Amino acid sequence: MNDDAYARAGVSQGDADAAVASLVSALSATARADSLQVLASGHYANVVRLDESTGIALSTDGVGTKLVLAEQLGRWDTVGIDCVAMNVNDVICVGAEPLAMVDYLAVERADPEVAGAIGAGLARGAELAGIEIVGGELAQLGELINGLDLAGACLGVVALDSLVTGEAIEPGDPVIGLPSSGLHSNGYTLARKAIAEIPLDDERLGRPLGDVLLEPTEIYARPIVELLGSGVDVRGLAHITSGGLDNLLRLDAEVAYEIDDPLPVPSVFALIQELGGVDDDEMHQVFNMGCGFCAIVAATDEEAALERLRVAYPDAKLIGRAAEGPPAVRRTA
């Protein structure tokens, strides 16, 4: 990956990967001899064995530097949706039904109006995801925080014999792409640097640029949970975030992925690429490029899966297939 533009903007993906590896290595010492952990680290969520048949899925994530734009625009009512989305979209990737979340709001100073707007977004996200927000924490950290940070953690439930890990994926299985609502909550450090000279009320994309950039992350939970309960043989689920379609490689599948008919790329990505001087490879590594989620199903269930998913996402389509070969994502279009 050529991450020059992202690194110049202040984010080194290579450093982040190394830091995560170091953190995971240190945390491995916490494993109990009778560990309840079901999956290896590196999946979208992990699962803790509750009993012989049931697992609890857990994941945590935040909104990132999209919050800087919210502050610039003085609009806090949508970032709570992002927080819910980034968490539930990971939990469903192991075949779990999300049940509840807690949130963590770290602020320079407490502002009831801002907190109330963020809370309204969290409540709307919970409604869209079909979950409850059962608690949280507000921390005033003026010595550490310039502005605020918003994150959360999500809990879901899954039958252990119905885990979706990707292990069952076979060559020929279809990869179905679901459209994103925009940038979602990834790549904003690079995006903000690229469009820094454009006023946020610029309407070259058909509506104010600030509105385009604050468009909430799509919540895929309900349609995916319905797909999982439909009888369709769902073999892999991937939340497409930073890393783009390479997120497919987080699945436990010894296959390659041939992506030959991707979803259309929203115009905001072309604007960022043009103004930021970002090459194609880096754009596909940093952003979702119009595809926010993928479902890999058995080849015999392709039409049934598409029919069900198009109820919520009329533009859902086959974007490629699993193929023979070592794990890799091969974009041919």
The domain count comes to 2
**CATH level 4 superfamily of the largest domain:** PurM-like C-terminal domain
How does the major sheet shape up? 6 strands, mixed
Tally of contiguous helical segments? 11
- For the CA atoms, what is the radius of gyration? 20 Å
Order of helices and strands: HHEEHHEHEEEHHHEEHHEHEE
Total strands: the figure is: 11
What's the N-to-C terminus distance?
18 Å
The fraction of residues assigned to DSSP E strands is 15-25%
Quick check: average pLDDT?
Answer: 93
Low-confidence stretches: none
CATH architecture of the largest domain: Alpha-Beta Complex
Structure summarized in a few sentences:
The chain has 333 residues and is α+β, with helices and mostly antiparallel strands. 32% of the residues lie in helices and 24% in strands.
